[in-house]
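We now fix the convention by which a protein and its fold are recorded. The integers have meaning only within a learned vocabulary of local backbone shapes. A record is reproduced here so that you can trace the correspondence yourselves:
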Amino acid sequence: MVVENKTSINEQSDIELYKSFLNGNKEAFNQLILRHRKQLTLFIMKYVKKLEVAEDIVQDSFVYMLINKVDYDFKYSFRTYIYTIAKSRTLNYLKNKSKIVSMEDVLTAKYYDEEMNIEEIYIKKEEREKIQKAIKKLKKDYQIVIYLYDFQGFKYKEISEILNQSMSKTKMMIHRAKKQLKNILKEENEIC
């Protein structure tokens, strides 16, 4: 008897799941949503004011992907693809609504992650608050690249694709954002 060695849906890569979805597996698409929904929502919160709006944009992004499923180019990572769609949908929303992002909403969004436990919330709370306060002092572009690079773990190439800019500009922005963040934190430590 031959036992088929199938990988469970939870162990499949994003690209494997997407290919499975293209072949008609709706559960694969649901798994992609489960994997990326929370982090996409936090990313969109960098741009919009309300959690409900961010959640709607995430849902809209996945619906867009569902409708335009053949548009995905497999030479790019799936995360880059969905973040690019989400950014585009977000900018369309902002263009239509002309609203400015409040970073305070981003800070409250950290409680959105249902997997956080009480212990994680209070571990090094003071340091996190200092860093978050310093990040809020950065200009919006720097806040976004710091979030994508340091908090989401995107590579330079992926960030440049998401932001639709050259890789050299992306590297420069990340370098300047980190340098400015370091200076802000240094100044605040000297004041205390």
Q: What stands out?
A: The radius of gyration is 19 Å. The first helix runs from residue 14 to 22. The CA atoms of residues 11 and 135 lie 35 Å apart. DSSP finds ten helices and no strands in the chain.
